[in-house]
Design a protein that fits this description.
Layout: H1 29-37, E1 57-59, E2 66-68, H2 76-83, H3 99-114, H4 125-134, H5 139-160, H6 163-170, H7 196-202
Antiparallel strand pairs: 1-2
Bound molecules: zinc ion (3 copies).
């Protein structure tokens, strides 16, 4: 007898008494209902409830489904940034951009290689995530990275063109000549200007 576990939440029981396993004994009743509603991440296939605010999720502009930011290997910073991107940068899940077909092709090739064409064998979420991150970045991701790059450049240029920061950059105290005995010089922190408040109020 095999041990039944919900593939979505890991529960070993289908739910409270009276609840039944769903989807060929792969999901508990609650997850099965959520799955039917379409409340599952298209990458890891795990279900989420509408009240689930705990994990970071991003909505696909194409199919309107929600995807775990972890499943897209997005860092917390990138996740936060995505929310502040201009309207031209919209997130799309693998099914809605070109990655979906590439992913399917890779998975089918692998299945062929091990000759397990069993439809019921689903790839591990971890494996799907690994394949996805090895694919060329989707448009939304490259656009986002470009946006970050442009932002960084703007900040750097702003600092270079700012009078207060220029003074700091040109401060001769930072550069010291080598001591005459030829010993390598230790970095001297006291010689570096670090009055960043001046920068903050001047920008
Ligand atoms: Zn479950
Ligand atoms: Zn997921
Ligand atoms: Zn989508």
């Amino acid at each position: 007898m095999r041990c039944v576990r919900c593939q979505s939440c890991g529960a070993s029981k289908p739910g409270a008494s009276g609840c039944k396993w769903t989807h060929d004994f792969t999901m508990c009743q609650r997850c099965g209902d959520l799955y039917e509603k379409g409340n599952f991440c298209p990458i890891c296939q795990r279900c989420y409830s509408d009240e689930d605010y705990e994990c970071r999720m991003i909505q696909c502009a194409g199919c309107k489904r929600w995807v775990h930011s972890k499943c897209e290997s997005l860092s917390v910073e990138m996740y936060t940034l995505l929310a502040h991107m201009p309207n031209s940068v919209t997130y799309k899940c693998p099914d809605c951009d070109s990655r979906g077909s590439q992913l399917k092709q890779i998975l089918t090739e692998r299945a062929d290689a091990v000759e397990t064409l069993d439809e019921s064998i689903k790839p591990e979420p971890e494996e799907v995530r690994k394949i996805l991150s090895s694919l060329p970045p989707p448009t939304w991701k490259s656009l986002m990275e470009k946006e970050v790059q442009t932002g960084l450049e703007a900040v750097t240029m702003g600092l270079f063109h700012n009078r207060a920061t220029c003074c700091i950059l040109k401060n001769p105290g930072v550069v010291k000549s080598e001591p005459s005995d030829g010993k390598p010089m230790k970095p001297d922190d006291s010689a570096r200007p670090h009055d960043l408040f001046a920068v903050r109020f001047a920008v």
